[in-house]
Amino acid sequence: MKCVKECKSTGTSCTQKECRYWIDYDDDRNCTMIAIESSQGGMTLREVAKRMQISFVRVKQIEDAALVKLAKRLSADCNVPLSELKSLLCP
Asked: Which residues of the chain, if any, have pLDDT below 50?
């Protein structure tokens, strides 16, 4: 997180590609933490795709897979039927 503070204070893009928060997107100073702060209210899937330099369809696939994983985990942890959770998380 030291590099995040440095990028904010200097107003420059991050050059530390090995940083776990680094993305190849100069508008957000190459930092996911700065991107999150600058897009209050969240981002659309298309904005995420642009920032990650992947297709919108791929972002949607990742979102769908994450929701299925979340539903499975919640089902196991909360003893709620998986079908009920899927209908709530994946309309």
From this structure: none
